[in-house]
Every structure is written in C-alpha cells, then in structure tokens.
Design goal:
By secondary structure, the chain is α+β, with helices and mostly antiparallel strands. The chain has one domain. 38% of the residues lie in helices and 22% in strands. The mean pLDDT is 93.
C-alpha cells in the first residue's frame, strides 16, 4: 500500500487558520479523520468562551437550540453535536513529502 503526505488545516473557532503536517497517511479519508479530530479539539478548547456553545448551555436552555424545554439528555447531546459540526471547518491538501510545509501557516 502506498502512503501519501497530507497537510491538515482547520479554520479555528478562535480565529485564523491552523496547519499541521505534512503527515503520512494511507488514504485521504484517514487524513480527513485526523483533520476532523483536530477541529473537534480546537472547538472544545474554546467551549464556553466567545459564544462557543458547550453542552451545559444546551442542557440549561434546550429551547435555544430548537428543542422542547423538557428535552432529554440524548436530544441535548444531539443538538450540541449539530452545533459543533456546524462550526467546524477542516480540509487536507496533498503534500510532496515531509519537507513540503505551507510557509503561510507555520
């Protein structure tokens, strides 16, 4: 199996674009999985600040997220995940090897 190099990018919810890599992956999908996790980690690091929603806010005021005021915990978690997914922006770019860095984001 041939591996390829990818740079991982996220548009941080805190502002700006962050880049990791290049890293070697067996597929673009594997690289996208890591970029998604990087975006989740970024989102979670800002929860509760600058208007970034955390699960507590959904649990306290579920109606603010399109739920009934007596929504159960599972519905609140689903609403939280939808909110988080809507805020995340991530992508990968194939690189030419380990030294192919993006000078604009390093």
């Amino acid at each position: 199996m041939e591996y390829k190099w990818y740079r991982l990018y996220i548009h941080s919810v805190g502002g700006g674009i962050e880049c990791e890599g290049p890293r070697e992956y067996k597929s673009k999908e594997a690289a996208m999985d890591d970029a998604r996790q990087m975006a989740i980690d970024d989102y979670e690091s800002f929860e509760g600040y600058h208007g970034i929603v955390d699960i507590g806010e959904v649990m306290e005021c579920p109606e603010d997220f399109g739920l009934d005021s007596d929504a159960d915990e599972e519905a609140c978690w689903e609403a939280y995940y939808e909110e988080r997914e809507g805020c995340m922006d991530y992508w990968v770019v194939e690189a030419n090897g380990p030294d192919d860095i993006d000078e604009d984001y390093q």
